[in-house]
């Protein structure tokens, strides 16, 4: 790019002045060739930079303001009068317009020696232009050394020795030492520094020889040294930790002028001395977990057997009772739950979640509701009043009702039929004769029923062989038996009748009475 007539850098921004008559478009292109754009003046700091560059020289210089199309007229009431910076925005904290009314046409802006902004037709050439260059960082000027003048050159073509800061890519030439330095990044993320391609220090009297640590002479040659715990960088001037660039996978520890690699807990250092391998904690530390140990990358995980769950670091049996439909009690067992009952009740074998009243004696206290005054009894029991105990449940002696064909044994709430020798039970109450071929001795009636026809307990006499007087006797006997049965039935009905609020229970089978209840209406049947 063309060299500016003057230039200066403030921190990360540089400005150049070009005294060359150009229209606005050509001036803008010239700035862009140097990596910048026409100058934006957004604050008094930029105004001070213009004053420094002008050095009281007369003339009008292009700024980076242009009236955007299709807007053809200015707006004097606005801060930028409708103009826009070449960067595409209208942001500014400063303006210094010369008095002017509303104007129309293709207009741009110049600045005069008095620092006043004036509107001018863009195609008309101005006396010169101001360029602006923005950078991400800068190098400070080298500290002055007696007898060592320095000449700087910037990437946008400016040269001189009075720069306050230099952008990246600038060079510093020291003719007395035959030395040329460059403003570049010394390392990733380390920022900009003055350096050179050749490693090692330059004479210590200029900028400490470029050393980050101390600069000294050894055998008449400059040499850099670093503080304890650091080593010289590859360029021979910078200082870095021995761990910088170390191949450690996890951690690096400085040991004098070298480094050691270390691994996190749960890992061990591999044979290469830098990478880390997982330790099988479950194998190294037996009984690490209460039940099951599972090794993981860099650690381990404790788990529980089926039927258990982890609670506060311990395996506890999984409770299923909170969701169990048990009517009274519940007990957790491996793999599930088991329902139970309160005293006086037994688990219903047909519905294991329910409880039925249960009595294993001939008489038990009735289960009464104090609110409704109703009482309940197990199957095979009748509700009765006892002067000492109040409402009680009394066992029904089913053997008195001749349910069994042969022999009968009464039990609390039930009964059991037995057969004579040579017979076996057909069903709950009847017996059948055992065929001669199947007999091997006397039988007690404990055999299951076969496909035989029930044998009547007694054979009724044939009516056609009876004498008339005998028939009269039989009729009188039958009437007497009927009266006796009627009296017995009245007695039983009287015992079973009670107020409508109560309920009785009767067994549905001889072997089911102790485990189940079936409600029977307390009203008496006719």
TrEMBL record:
Out of the domains of life, which is the source?
A: Eukaryota
Segments passing through the bilayer:
470-493
Q: What is its main location?
A: membrane
* GO CC annotation, single: membrane
Q: Offer one Pfam family short name for this entry.
A: Lectin_C
Q: Which GO terms describe its biological process?
A: endocytosis
Q: Which GO terms describe its molecular function?
A: calcium ion binding; carbohydrate binding; transmembrane signaling receptor activity
Q: Where is this region: Disordered?
A: 438-464
Question: What is the role of the protein in this entry?
Answer: Endothelial cell receptor that plays a critical role in regulating several physiological processes including hemostasis, coagulation, fibrinolysis, inflammation, and angiogenesis. Acts as a cofactor for thrombin activation of protein C/PROC on the surface of vascular endothelial cells leading to initiation of the activated protein C anticoagulant pathway. Also accelerates the activation of the plasma carboxypeptidase B2/CPB2, which catalyzes removal of C-terminal basic amino acids from its substrates including kinins or anaphylatoxins leading to fibrinolysis inhibition.
Name the record gives this protein: Thrombomodulin
Gene that this sequence comes from: THBD
């Amino acid at each position: 790019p063309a060299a500016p007539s003057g230039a200066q850098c403030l921190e990360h921004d540089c400005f150049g002045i070009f005294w060359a008559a150009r229209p606005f478009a050509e001036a803008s292109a010239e700035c862009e060739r140097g990596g910048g754009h026409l100058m934006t003046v957004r604050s008094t700091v930029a105004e001070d930079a213009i004053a420094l560059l002008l050095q009281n020289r007369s003339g009008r210089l292009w700024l980076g303001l242009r009236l955007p199309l299709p807007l053809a007229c200015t707006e004097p009431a606005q801060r930028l009068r409708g103009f826009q910076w070449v960067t595409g925005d209208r942001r500014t904290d400063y303006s210094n317009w010369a008095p002017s009314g509303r104007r129309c046409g293709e207009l741009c802006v110049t600045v005069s020696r008095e620092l006043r902004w004036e509107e001018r037709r863009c195609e008309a050439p101005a006396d010169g232009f101001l360029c602006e260059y923005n950078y991400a960082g800068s190098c400070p000027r080298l500290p002055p050394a007696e007898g060592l003048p320095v000449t700087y050159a910037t990437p946008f073509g400016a040269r001189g020795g009075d720069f306050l800061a230099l952008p990246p890519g600038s060079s510093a030439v020291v003719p007395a030492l035959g030395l040329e330095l460059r403003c570049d990044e010394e390392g990733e993320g380390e920022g900009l520094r003055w350096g050179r391609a050749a490693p090692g220090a330059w004479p210590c009297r200029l900028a400490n020889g470029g050393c980050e640590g101390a600069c000294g002479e050894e055998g008449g040659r400059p040499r850099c040294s670093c503080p304890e715990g650091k080593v010289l960088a590859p360029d021979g001037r910078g200082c870095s930790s021995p761990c910088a660039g170390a191949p450690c996978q996890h951690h690096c520890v400085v040991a004098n002028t070298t480094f050691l690699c270390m691994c996190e807990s749960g890992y061990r250092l591999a044979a290469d001395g830098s990478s880390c391998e997982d330790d099988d904690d479950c194998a190294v530390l037996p009984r690490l977990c209460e039940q099951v140990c599972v090794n993981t990358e860099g650690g381990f995980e404790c788990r529980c057997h089926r039927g258990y769950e982890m609670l506060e670091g311990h395996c506890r049996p999984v409770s299923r009772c909170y969701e169990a439909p048990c009517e009274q009690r519940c007990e957790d067992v491996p793999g599930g739950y088991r329902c139970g009952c309160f005293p006086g009740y037994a688990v219903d074998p047909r519905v294991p979640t329910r409880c039925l009243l249960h009595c294993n004696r001939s008489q038990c206290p009735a289960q009464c509701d104090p609110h409704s005054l109703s009482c309940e009894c197990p199957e095979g029991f009748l509700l009765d009043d006892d002067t000492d105990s109040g409402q009680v449940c009394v066992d029904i002696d089913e053997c008195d009702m001749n349910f069994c064909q042969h022999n009968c044994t009464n039990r609390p709430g039930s009964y059991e039929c037995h057969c004579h020798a040579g017979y076996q039970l057909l069903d709950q109450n009847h017996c059948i004769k055992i065929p001669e071929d199947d007999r091997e001795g006397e039988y007690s009636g404990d055999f299951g029923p076969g496909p035989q026809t029930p044998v009547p307990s007694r054979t009724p006499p044939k009516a056609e062989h009876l004498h008339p007087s005998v028939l009269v006797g039989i009729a009188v006997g039958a009437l007497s038996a009927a009266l006796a049965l009627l009296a017995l039935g009245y007695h039983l009905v009287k015992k079973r009748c009670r107020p409508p609020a109560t309920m009785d229970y009767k067994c549905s089978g001889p072997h089911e009475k102790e485990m189940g209840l079936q409600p029977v209406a307390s009203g008496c049947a006719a």
